[in-house]
Amino acid sequence: MNKVVSRREFLKTSGGVALFIGISGLLPQMIACKNNKEVQKLLKKHQLTAWVKLAEDGQITIYNPAAEMGQGSMTSLPAIFAEEIDADWSKVSVEFSPQESEIYGSDKWSPNNKVMLSAGSRVTYGYYSIMRQAGAQARYILMHSIAEHWKVPMKELSTANGEVINRRDNKKIGYGEIIPYLIMPDKLPEFSESELKDPKNYRFIGLDRPRVDIPAKVKGTTQFAIDIQLPEMLYGVLERGNLHGARPNLNNESEILALSGVLKLVPFDYAIGIIAESLDQALAAKKLLNISWSDAPASGFNSQDCYKKYEKIASEKSAGKVITNEGNINSAIKSAGKTFSVDFKNDYVYHAQMEPLNAVVQVGTDGNSAEVWVGSQQGFDSKLGVPGYLGIPAENVKINLQYLGGGFGRRSMTDFVLEGTGLAREVAPRPVKLIWTREDDVSYGAYRPLTLQRLKASTDAQGKITGFSHCVVGDGGNLVASGIRIDYYDIPNKYAEWREVSEGIRLKHWRSVGHAPNKFAIECMIDEIATYFKKDPADFRRILLAKSPRALATLDKAISMCDWYSTIADNHAKGIAFLERSGTLSTGICEISVDRKTGIISVHRFWSASDAGIVIQPDNVKAQMEGGILMGISSVLKEQLTIVNGRVQQSNFNDYEILQMSDIPDNVETAIIESREPPRGVGESGTPLVACAIANAFLKLTGKHLRHLPFTPERVLNALNT
Amino acid sequence: MASQSLKINNKTYDVDLNEDTSLLWVLREHLGLTGTKYGCGIALCGSCTIHVDDKPMRACSLTLSALNKDQKITTIEGLSENGDHPIQQAWVEAQAPQCGYCQSGQIMQAVTLLAENPNPTREEIKAYMNGNLCRCGTYLRIVKAIEIAAKKTSVKT
Q: Span A307-349+447-720: which CATH code?
C-alpha cells in the first residue's frame, strides 16, 4: 500500500511507519509508506520537498539544507523549524537534506533563483523565513488532521511540546499518533509575521541548547568525506607542483605504473593523477613522480617585491572600477584643513582548514551517472560542476553532503570535486577517494589575495572628516573589494575603487573575504586621524557613527565591557575597531603588549559587541566570534605565505605556522546586542576586527604604525625603529 | 609484506602490510578506525593523537616496524563505550568542538594530561596541549573543558 497522497486522500498506516510531510511552496504532497526503502524510492520519483520526517512514535527528523563546518547550522536551522512546529526537542534528530536546490534552496542569494550555499555568513539569513513557514505549515497540517478526526474546530486546538491539545476537554495527542489520520487541507496558509509564534513564547530561538553534532564529534564517529569507506574503493592523489597553472610532463611513466598497487596514471592540464589500490601505495608513487613543469602566468612573480608595482598603479591617473562615489572627493581634498595619505599592504593568506581537501566520487559504468561524497560549502550549482564536467544531465548526479573539517571559503570551490570525478571516470564503476596531502593543500591552495590599499582622507581644521578615499589594488574582483564600503560613517564625500592586477596565483574567498584587509586599512586610518587631532578613538568613532544608532550601541557596549577609559599597565594598550559584515555590526577592542626586543605582540584580551539581528543560538554566536577572533590573531601575527618566482614557498605547518594554544589571549569576551531585526550572520565578523584593533593598540602603545599584514616580528621591529 | 598483530582498543588485529606503512593509514584506511584524523602527516598538528601504552603518540609518525603485538594502542574509539568518558562529557558540557576534525586528537592528548597531572594550572594545560592545532579557534573552550574534567575527577577522589 504505497501511494503518493495528495490533497484530501489519506492512508491508514500501522506501526513503525515513516511519514514525510512535504512543503514546497506549491500544494504540498504527502507520502505515507510502510517501508523505508520504498519511501526513499518514492522520494526520488516524486521530488518531495520534505523538511521533516515524522514517525509514529513521535520521532521527528528535520532536514538541514546547509553545510555544517562548525558554525552550528545543523542545530540552529532545525531549531527554527522546531519552534514553529512546536516540537518535543528530545524527539528531534537532524539529517542533511538532499542537495537539490529547486527544493531546498534559498532565494536570498539572488531573487527568483534558489541556491544552496553555505558562505558569506548568510545561512541563517537565507533560511530563517523558509524554516519558520515550513514549521508553521507542518504544524497546521497536524492540527487540521486531528481537528477533522476529533470533529472539533481547529481554533479550539493548541500545540505544545510535540502534542496537539484540545483546550475544551484537555484531550492530548502526540504528533506521531496523528499519522493515521493525516489529511491535506484544501489550502495551506502562508503565515504572516503576526500569525507565526509570538517570540515571548519561544522555547528554542534565542535560547541555547547543546549542538546536535557535538556528541559524535567527541566520540570520533562524525563522518567527514575523508573517512568514507566504500566497497571496491580505490585511492587517488594528484601531483600539482607549486607553480599554479604550470603544465606537467611526466618523465617516468613506466616506472610509476610498475609500482605496487598503482593502477592508472591520469593526466590533468595542471597535474598528474595516480589511482592506486591503497592510500599508502598512492602516496609512495606520488613521491617518485619525475615531472618537468612548464612556465605559467605566475612565473617570475615575487610576492615580497610586487608592492612597488602596485604603488605605481595606485598613483596612476585613470580610475579602476569605481565602487563608491558620493559627494565630491576631489574638492573635499582640495579644500581640506588637513589631508592624510597612507598605504596599507597585506600578503596572501592560506585557509589551513584542518581536514585536507578530498572527495569520494563514483562514476557509473556507462559514464552517464555519478555519485559524490564530499564536505562542500555547496554553490550556485548544487551539483558542484560534475554534470558539466562529465557532460551528463544534472539529475543523474547525486551529491552526498558530509560534515566539513573546516570551510572558511575554501570548500565552496569545486576543484577537488572535479579532480575526483576525473579520476573516477577512468576506473568506473569503482569509487575513488581523492585525498590532498597537507603539502598539496598549502602549495596549491587558493588564497586571500595580496593587495595594496591607498587611503586618503581630508578633515577640517578641527578634525572632522570631510572626505575619505580608498583605492585597493589587487587581483580578484569582489575578493578584494568586499568591506570597502563605509556607509555607516557620517562622511559627506566618499570614494572607493578597485584597480585590477593579474598575477596568476589562485585566489578564493577567505573568511570575511575583502573585509579583513579593507577594514584593517580603514580602521587604522580612522585612528591615525583621531590620534593626530588628539581625540580618543572611541569618541572619534562615536561622532562618525552618529547617524547609525545600531552601530553606536555596539560601540557603547564594547567600551563599557572593557573599561575603555580607565588606565591600564604602562606596557599594555587597548585598540578599537568597528565594522559591518554580512549585515552584522560589530565593535572589537583588544588589549596588547609588545616585546620590544623580539617584536612579538601578545594579545591579552579581546572584547566584541555585535548586533546580528535575531540570534537563534547565542552560544553559537559566541563560539563564532571567539573562533573568528582567534583565526584573526593567527593570520595577523603568525601566518605568512610567500611566493618566489611564482612558486609557493610554504608546504606544511612547519613553515606556515598557525595559532597554537600557547598564543591564545587570556580572555575573549563577546556580547550580543538584543535585536528584533531579521537574523544576520557572525561567522565572518570576528576575524576582520583583529588586524585593525591590534594595529590601533600598537599605535596607542608605541606611537608607531603597523601597515603591512602580517605583523611579523621583523615588521614590528622595523616599525618600532622608525 | 608481513603479517603483524596489533592490540588496539583491547582487540587484536592482524594486518598484512608493508612494514613502513604508517599506523595512521593502518587505522584509518585498513582497519576502518577513522576517528583518528590526518591533518599534516609530520606530527605537527596532533589530529592523529592516539595512546601507546597510555602515552600520547602521533600515529602519522609511527610505522608498523616500530610497533609490536604487546603494545596497548588506544584510539578515540576505545576511550569509552558511549562517549561517556569524563573528558568527553566535559567536552560536551563546554560545547568545545566546532568543525570537530581536530577534536579526537585534542581529547586523546587531554586524557593523558589529566592522567599525569590531575589538577593542572591554566599554564600547564596550555603547554601540554600546545602541539594540538585547531583552526576553528576552540582553544579557550578546550581549556575550559579540561578544567571542568579536572574539577569533576578531583571531586570524585
A: 3.30.365.10
